[in-house]
């Protein structure tokens, strides 16, 4: 049977595909820009027939149709590997929950640990001449979900870019159970926020630490984006990319001629990534680009792989850090904001790299105008999550400076972190450090 004959045999409508979902099933919706779209709508139309359907996804870019119905909590439960603003809304609706991860381990979670998947669905690029459906910019852990699912459904989207170069970047038609030719929705747009004054000051401090030939990992958010913008305008050259999330900043740096990848110890000349989201310029840049290397996350985020790359620079955001050096990048007390993602993977991996550095960056304060609160705190707010333990944190940067916590005792850490706190909060932090007996009377703060 030819691929085209098999394609016709497996081609069904979204409504037909949705019928395979049963009450009590675990269903995987894919990841980020590859989440189910048309089959999701068809499942939502069947809501009255379903209860206790449990779904997995993450970095959700639009509100799934199953949560736009009346009383979705009576039918569906969302389990997210990483929260976006949409995931937070589903959580607030009472039918969404976070699944704690080390992102590099997620493919193994599927293959060894999670509840069996009845149905796995994701959007894909059109089938190629060899019978393969490319996963687009989310190879991440997609093949692992199909490996352990009973029923495999692909939704073809003609707007999905083909991302090349790594392993498990697509699925062959022989492994697919149902094909849905979707309505070809445009890929969601994730624009970059305009950097604040604090973002720009932090970025300048970090860029000073980056040598020619360094390999970059940028997290999502204003500060990493500001670093990317500053790198694009800098004199740096021969940079490389090995990151979990590919964002618009990398396109800007590439178009400025700063990225060649020629100094990378592995994957020379290639920009390696696990998933991507951004604006149209990013999706256009990724499509069929031989310089780009789409990879599974157990490769991109493996600290032992990261450690093989010299001068690895990891740049990520944080919500708060306490005086012991514990970093919270995912919650405000018990209110969940994002997730661990790959931050811990890259903090550990960058330090294994010869010449490598990881930077945890945050503004010194947050809150309403006239009512600022310090992001550098004596101890974590009750319920807050420690994303990076104090033993793994390397550089911490605010608009008031940068400090290296490696090798520092408790009083040295407190001194260093208070030195980059907002001046209005330093005396209070010193008093709290004294109470916790992590302050020396000889300490001086500039």
UniProtKB/TrEMBL annotation:
Keyword Cytoplasm on entry: no
Residue span, Acetyl-CoA hydrolase/transferase N-terminal domain: 5-183
Catalytic activity: butanoate + acetyl-CoA = butanoyl-CoA + acetate
Annotated positions binding CoA: 219-223, 319, 342
Keywords, alphabetical: Fatty acid metabolism, Lipid metabolism, Transferase
Residue stretches making up the Acetyl-CoA hydrolase/transferase C-terminal domain: 278-433
Protein's pathway: Lipid metabolism; butanoate metabolism
GO biological process: acetate metabolic process; acetyl-CoA metabolic process; butyrate biosynthetic process
Active site: 244 (5-glutamyl coenzyme a thioester intermediate)
Name of the top EC class for this enzyme: transferase
Cited Pfam families: AcetylCoA_hyd_C, AcetylCoA_hydro
UniProt cross-references to Gene3D superfamilies, sorted A to Z: 4-hydroxybutyrate coenzyme like domains (3.30.750.70), Acetyl-CoA hydrolase/transferase C-terminal domain (3.40.1080.20), Glutaconate Coenzyme A-transferase (3.40.1080.10)
UniProt keyword DNA damage present: no
GO molecular function: acetate CoA-transferase activity
Matches recorded under InterPro entries: AcetylCoA_hyd_C (IPR026888), AcetylCoA_hyd_C_sf (IPR038460), ActCoA_hydro (IPR046433), ActCoA_hydro_N (IPR003702), Butryl-CoA_acetate_CoA_Tfrase (IPR023990), NagB/RpiA_transferase-like (IPR037171)
Family to which the UniProt record says this protein belongs: Belongs to the acetyl-CoA hydrolase/transferase family. Butyryl-CoA CoA-transferase subfamily.
Function of the molecule: Coenzyme A-transferase that converts butyryl-CoA to butyrate.
Protein name: Butyryl-CoA:acetate CoA-transferase
Annotated source species: Candidatus Syntrophocurvum alkaliphilum
Taxonomic path: Bacteria, Bacillati, Bacillota, Clostridia, Eubacteriales
């Amino acid at each position: 049977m030819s691929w085209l004959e098999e394609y016709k045999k497996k081609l069904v409508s979204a409504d037909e595909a949705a019928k395979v979902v049963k009450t009590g099933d675990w269903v995987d919706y894919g990841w980020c820009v590859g989440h189910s779209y048309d089959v999701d709508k068809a499942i939502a139309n069947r809501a009255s027939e379903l209860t206790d359907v449990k779904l997995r996804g993450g970095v959700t870019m639009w509100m799934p149709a199953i949560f736009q119905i009346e009383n979705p909590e009576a039918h569906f439960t969302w389990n997210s590997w990483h929260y976006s603003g949409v995931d937070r809304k589903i959580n607030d609706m009472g039918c969404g929950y976070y699944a704690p991860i080390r992102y590099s381990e997620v493919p193994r979670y599927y293959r060894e640990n999670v509840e069996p998947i009845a149905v796995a669905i994701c959007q894909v690029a059109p089938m190629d001449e060899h019978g393969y459906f490319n996963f687009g910019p989310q190879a991440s852990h997609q093949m692992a979900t199909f490996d352990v699912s009973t029923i495999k459904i692909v939704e073809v989207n003609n707007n999905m870019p083909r991302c090349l170069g790594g392993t498990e970047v697509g699925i062959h038609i022989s492994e697919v159970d149902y094909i849905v030719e979707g309505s070809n929705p445009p890929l969601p747009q994730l624009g970059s926020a305009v950097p604040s004054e604090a973002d720009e000051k932090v970025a300048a401090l970090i860029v000073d630490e980056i040598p020619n030939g360094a390999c970059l990992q940028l997290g999502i958010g204003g500060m990493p984006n500001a670093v990317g913008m500053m790198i694009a305008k800098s004199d740096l050259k021969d940079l490389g990319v090995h990151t979990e999330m590919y964002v618009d900043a990398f396109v800007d740096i590439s178009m400025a001629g700063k990225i060649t990848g020629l100094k990378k110890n592995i994957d020379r000349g290639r920009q390696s990534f696990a998933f991507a989201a951004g604006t149209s310029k990013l999706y256009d840049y990724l499509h069929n680009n031989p310089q780009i290397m789409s990879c599974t996350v157990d490769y991109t985020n493996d600290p032992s792989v990261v450690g093989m790359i010299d001068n690895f620079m990891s740049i990520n955001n944080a919500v708060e850090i306490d005086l012991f050096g514990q970093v919270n990048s995912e919650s405000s007390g018990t209110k969940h904001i994002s997730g661990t993602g790959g931050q811990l993977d890259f903090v550990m991996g960058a330090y294994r790299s010869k010449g490598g550095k990881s930077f945890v960056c945050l503004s010194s304060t947050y809150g309403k105008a006239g009512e600022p609160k310090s992001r550098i705190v004596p101890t974590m707010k009750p319920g807050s999550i420690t994303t990076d333990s104090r033993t793994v944190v390397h550089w911490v940067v605010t608009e008031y400076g940068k400090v290296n916590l490696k090798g520092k005792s408790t009083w040295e850490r407190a001194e260093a972190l208070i030195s980059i706190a907002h001046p209005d909060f330093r005396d209070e932090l010193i008093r709290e450090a004294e109470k916790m007996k992590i302050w020396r009377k000889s300490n001086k703060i500039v």
